[in-house]
Amino acid sequence: MKNYINWKTFSILLSLSMISVICVFPYIVTVQEETLKAIGQPIEIIFIAQFIQSLLLFSIAIFLGLFFTKKIDFHLPLIEAMVEKKNYNEILKDILGKSVLIGVVTAMLIYVSDAIFTTLGAAISTHQSYAPIWQKLLASFYGGIAEEILMRLFLMTFFIWIGMKLFKRNQPTKTGIIISILLAAIIFGLGHLPITASLTALSPLIIGRAIVLNGIGGIFFGWLFWKKGLESAMIAHFTTDIFLLTLLPLLFK
Asked: How many Å apart are CA 222 and CA 152, to the nearest integer?
């Protein structure tokens, strides 16, 4: 397996992951203040524990994700060009505008969908309005980096690889990729249920809301990973979070 791992790429992704963990912590402290107080430990101890746990989690996820990515012939074109000391400017020009645009469209679709669920009685207050802008901006790095590594680099590629093994194929099929995108998107939505349960009682409508809102992003970001590479999905996800956490609430408050 080690032949499939470029350790420079691994180091870059792990470093970015841990930076995103540091970035999101102030936002977590603000949004989940009461929950953290209930733990009964100093914030510093909670942060150190979270950092160590994240270091282990992302080390495993990135290692396996790079292995699966190589097996299914997916790419991280921008990072690969940097590692191989090639000209990455053309790659960045190719993905930046499209990724930002898709990120904006995704944010609008999620925002409108959230409004529809609110009218149906599935409104959820996350207290995000209490967090200052700088915390929301920093938190967006976690979504764009950490969540894409977990959901796309690891989970989506794992499903594609499993599909290839089950059907004894040397290359992934279009159907297998689409199914994997959908599965990763659904799991991403379900992964938000524990924090949702701490805010409101779970119901079929609330569960559907979590799956749909997160699934919208998961589908777009998964498609970008497939067609343009992981970095494109990261840029789009970051853009979506910036709009959802800061710009759209200010425009439509």
From this structure: 6
The two three-digit tokens of residue 87, written as one number: 């000209």
**Whats the size of the chain, residue-wise?**
253
The residues, ordered by sequence, that sit 6+ positions from 215 with a Cβ below 8 Å of its Cβ are 182, 185, 186, 188, 189
Percent of the chain topping pLDDT 90: 70
pLDDT digits (tens, 9 = 90+) for 44-78: 999 999 999 999 999 999 999 999 999 999 999 99
User: Residue 13 to residues 35, 136, 145, 173, 234: CA-CA distances in angstroms?
Assistant: 30, 22, 8, 27, 12
For the segment 71-105, what is each residue's pLDDT rounded down to a tens digit? 999 999 999 999 998 988 999 999 999 999 999 99
Q: Are 150 and 249 in contact (CB under 8 A)?
A: no
CA 189 to CA 7: how far, in whole Å? 31
Q: In angstroms, what CA-CA distances link 40 with 2, 21, 52, 67?
A: 42, 21, 19, 40
pLDDT over threshold 60, residue 126? no
At residue 127, the pLDDT reads 45
Q: How many domains does the chain have?
A: 1
Between CA 214 and CA 189 the distance in angstroms is: 5
Phi, psi of 231 (to 5 degrees): -60, -35
Of residues 7, 16, 2, 4, the one with CA closest to residue 58: 16
Containing domain of residue 232, as a range?
2-251
Please provide residue 105's backbone torsions phi and psi, each rounded to the nearest 5 degrees: -60, -40
Cα–Cα distance measured from residue 102 to residue 244, given in angstroms and rounded to the nearest whole number: 13
Q: How far is CA 164 from CA 110, 150, 228, in A?
A: 32, 20, 21
Tokens of 202: 């779970």
Per-residue HEC secondary structure of 121-153 comes to CCCCCCCHHHCCHHHHHHHHHHHHHHHHHHHHH
